[in-house]
Each structure stands twice: as structure tokens, then as C-alpha cells.
Fold this protein.
Amino acid sequence: MSYLEAFPQELQEYYRKLFGSEADIIMQKLREPVEKYYIRVNTLKISRDKLIEELKKEGLKPKRSPYLEEGIYFEREGPNFSDDYNPKLPKVIVNKFAAESVYQGAQLYAPGVLNADKGIREGEEVEIRDPRGLLVGIGIARMDYKEMILAKRGIAVEVTLPKFKLPSLSELKSYEKGYFYAQSLPSMVVAHVLEPEESDVIIDMTAAPGGKTSHIAQLLQNRGEIIAIDKSRNRLKKMEEELKRLGVKNVKLIHMDSRKLPELGIEADKILLDAPCTALGIRPKLWETRTPKDIVATARYQRHFISAAIRTLRKGGVLVYSTCTLSYEENEENVKYMISKGLKLERQSIFIASHGIGIHEVQRFYPHKHLTQGFFIAKLRKA
Ligand code: SAM
């Protein structure tokens, strides 16, 4: 099964136009999990050296990020077999969510099972495939075929050979104690680029589940105040729990549509707009559903947030705009829109990726060059 089957034809053409001969390697990389899986040390609670000691005691192999003092990463294991490997075992077909989890080393839980070959018995070796037929792992059935289709909970297959293996961290003691937050390297760069200061009025316009807000809080050592907004109640609830786990105390959560931000009547010194986007840069993608039409519609949607941010910033205030997507329209084209509205591009304090397409001051993270998710960061000032 070729990686190309994972991308709609129109999107493949879009990537070829935008990235030329690099489009194929980008698409191949998007299908795989990141090579280096990052976590952010929560320096409100522990130092990097101490956390590294703890993680080693828990049997892991943490490494120090060469870029950020609070960054730790783990090397991915795999691929353990090639795309066309056919072990010819009885098959279990799973939904996309379960397939993506197994693909990265998780166990297969019964709610993820869509179908299973008749006659599979507990203890039998099976292959696990996504609904399109991609082999994501091999394991030992812990239920018979009927039970794994019907059961609402429990491990259906103990995965012994996943395609890739990333460390599973959420059961660790150090996780429970709030010593770290799983966050990609590009996401970690964002809070630094904002350069938050204690006296600033800071607004995070699309904040949940709180990765970047909690990082800003950490850089401020829990001082000052961050106004964090999101329109999803569920995600805000999760964020509240996360902030508690991490010991973050300087965040005010607001449930609202941030396109209406100017109605709050606040004048902000710094605004972070980590915009809702087509998420084309997220890895791994077993298959992509978005098309160029979605890109255009999303870029238009993002401009409502941009306008609200510009109206809310004080003169001289800073806007950091980020996305986890690879398209031109949601990134550089929206930055051009900001410039047309009077914002000026600013130098970024940490610049470890590539320059933008036609814009030097913005940074683009590429899956094939930086071995990260696809990501974009721009920093602008209101003149
Ligand atoms: N910044 C977050 C972090 O680092 O953990 C991730 C934010 S995610 C990319 C985008 C967020 O925008 C989602 O949580 C979504 O609920 C929120 N969102 C989408 N439309 C919104 C709106 N109109 N107003 C406020 N938030 C919105």
C-alpha cells in the first residue's frame, strides 16, 4: 500500500505545486510518527536534570533537546515492518483512532474493533489493519472474535509488534505529579517567540487544552496574568484539569468565541493566536481527508480571528500567529493580510526552522527537514 493512497488526489497536486520535488518525501513523512517525541519539563515543579533522573528510573531513555532548556525527547522505534509486509494472519479491522494508536505502540482496546475474522480464538496471533487495509500492528488476541466486536471495554489484542513505538507516558508517576507536558518542539518554540513579561496583558485566543498557555505561565514563573479563551467547553474542562496538574496559577479561563474578543474591551500587549487550522502538519496521518477547498475555507475563517486580534492589540503590541498546518493560504497568505492591515513583521527570538515561502521573517517546520510536525510561526507588531 503506497503512502500516496493516504492523500486525496487534489491535495497531492496542491503539495506538488507548493513543494515541488519535496512533496513526496513530505507526504511519506506525514504518514509516520515524529522521529523525536518531545515533552516539556514543567520548570514550575522540577528541573530538567532531575526529571531526566526520574524518567531513567522509570525505565525510559530521555535525551536533552539541543534547542530548548525545557525540552526532552525520546527516539521513536521502528518502522518494525514495511508497508507491503503480509504476515497472512487472521485479521482484525479497527477504526481510524484505534489504528493510529496501535500504529504508535498502544494496545488495541475492544471499542476500536470494527470487524474480526470468524474463528479467531483467545491466544491466537492476529494482524491488525485500518479500514483501508494498512497493517498497523501484530499481536495476540485476548478475546475471541465475537467478544472483541461486541465488548465495550478491555484489551482485545495485546500488541506485540506495532509498526512504530513511542513511549507511553501518561501512566508514569512523574506525569501524575505534573512534572511534564507532552508537547511538540515547534509548539514549544511559540511561547518563547511571544517573549512574555510579568507586566504584560497577555491573551491566548484559542487556548485549550492549554499546552502553550501553560508554557507561557511557566516562563512567567506563575507571575502576571494570562487571559485564556476557548469556545469549546469540553476542551476548557480538560485544560482546567491540566493547569491543576501542572500547578499553573496565573491563568484566567474564559469560555467564548474569540472572534468577539474586542467586545471584552481589553487592550492587550501580547496576543497568541494558535489558530484552528486544517492540521495538515500533524503526524502520523494514516490518511488525510482535507482538500484544497478546506484550506481556502479555513484560511478565510482564520481572518476573523486575526481581525479581532488586531483590534484588541494596543499600539506597539505583539501578535504571535501559529498553525500546525502546511498550506500557504493559512500561513504566509494570512501574514500578508496582517501586513495589509498595518502590522509589521518582527524577528523571532528562537529561529530553528526554515524561512517562509516568500517571507523571510516567519518560520516553517517541515516533517522531512526538521523531523517535526509541519508547523508555522509568525510574529508581528501593531505599528
Ligand atoms: N493553543 C492550544 C494548545 O497549545 O494547547 C491548541 C489550540 S487548537 C490549535 C485550536 C483551538 O481553537 C481549539 O481548542 C478550538 O476549540 C478553539 N477554537 C475554535 N474556534 C474558536 C472560536 N471561534 N473561539 C475560540 N476558540 C475557538
Residues 91-162 form a domain with the Archaeosine Trna-guanine Transglycosylase; Chain: A, domain 4 fold (CATH 2.30.130.10). The mean pLDDT is 97.
